[in-house]
Design brief:
Belongs to the ATP-dependent AMP-binding enzyme family. It comes from Piscinibacter gummiphilus. By secondary structure, this protein is of the alpha/beta class. Helices cover 32% and strands 25% of the residues. The strands form nine sheets. An eight-stranded mixed beta sheet has the order 7-6-5-3-4-8-9-21, with helices on both faces. The protein has a four-stranded mixed beta sheet with strand order 2-1-11-10, with helices on both faces. The chain has a four-stranded antiparallel beta sheet with strand order 19-20-24-25. The model has no long low-confidence stretch (mean pLDDT 90).
Length: 511
Amino acid sequence: MNPDTQVLICGERRMSGSTLRLNSARAAAGFAALGVGQGDAVAVMMRNDLPYLEAMLAVNRLGAYLVAVNWHFQADEAGFLLADSRAKVLVIHADLLLQVAAVVPSGVTVIAVDTPAEMTSAYGIAAAALPPGVLRWPAWRDGFEPWRAAPVPTLGTLLYTSGTTGRPKGVMRLPGTPAQHAGQLRVRALVNRAREGMRTAVVGPLYHAGPNAGARLALEMADVIVVMPRFDAELLLQAVEHYKLTHLSLVPVMLVRLLKLSPAVRAKYDVSSLENVTHGGSPCPPEVRRAMIDWWGPILTETYGSTEAGLVTLGTSESWLRFPGTVGKPVDGFSLRILDGEGRILPAGEVGEIYVNPGDNALPFTYKNDPALRQSIERDGHITNGDMGYLNAEGYLFITDRKRDMVISGGVNIYPAEIEHVLLANPEVLDVAVFGIPDAEYGEALAAAVVPAPGCSPTPEGIRAWVRERLAGYKVPKVVDFHTALPREGMGKLFKNQLRAPYWAKLGRNI
């Protein structure tokens, strides 16, 4: 990749890779002047934007952590991350500052980035007046000569994860070895089938591990990078056709949204330039994967991983067609085990908790301010994030569900993801979540929260009949409720605790 010929596009704005790196070198000098050094933290609370990437590269230069703050967060949530990470600087879109200004810890320098016009239009945002004394990104950045010191090994992004129950935990990378730095880049490129000169888009929010890592890879290898402020299925197809994009990284909910476009809309756009589309982040319904292969061809690559372990498996379209539902085999150098509750390794075909040792394929990590929690997830050098699954006889991994989402009804383990996959194939269903609710007889029963597809009016009886025709009777939801939308964040992560809470609160219990 040549920075002089690399082009970054965000709305109507264009920037060369060289300009991006010059801006980031100036910002690095500015951060250093504010006391940011190796191992310190700079928080960024922004939607996808070019200054986000400038800040990312600037923090890299100093060997500091970039704390990716979810821009949806309200004051209490954002305040916790700023305090827990001990960030010295907060870089934030101007319109977001009002919602968090009161919780910014004293001593933290706030630098505001003007919210660009295409973003205010896309989100319906009103212009924001900044409080006195707040620095503005371009003027502040350009007041410094570029940072000339030799770059130090980057520590990457301090990502806070699993905030659906209790406070989120910060996954903090440790310096690691040169082999581990090289290994994580190698795996990222391998799983995304990346190549020098590719043309790609940053589609998901940069506060999430997958898009954040994908953006870093794109900056290393891509000639064209389209930065999308928000996901829109048809706008993505337009970008693929207009910029002849070759590589994408998506999540299953985005694939569902693409498939829900009308056949006429889908046929309008030429996507023949695509060489590889990687998806991960949550299990992909088999019907969705098959439909995408039928539409885009055998270019879909699936991966399984976690913020802690990085990308773990690689599953090609060919392997998926052999073993529908698999997320692939572990990448060379990973050790993957399926363990029961006592820590015993389970044989092929038996469901248990997934444990991974990445070896030299990822930097070591701890949890910010919670080393005991880090130790609690490890067994014999392998770590878990609570996912359940099994390996088949050929060593391919299948994900069944999150351990905490598993429902035990009458002593039977039920994995809601399987039922969700079946319901997403229903043309009357746009989105769905299945979860456990209290039941006097069975302990737990199944509930389904359904978002109807546009123009459709499904009934509870019809939803239950759809499941009953395809799965065992004990997997049919007892309760079906309809919603206009489900509580998801930008990468599609579903906050099931918000759906479960009203049912369990009636018993005076938290979940």
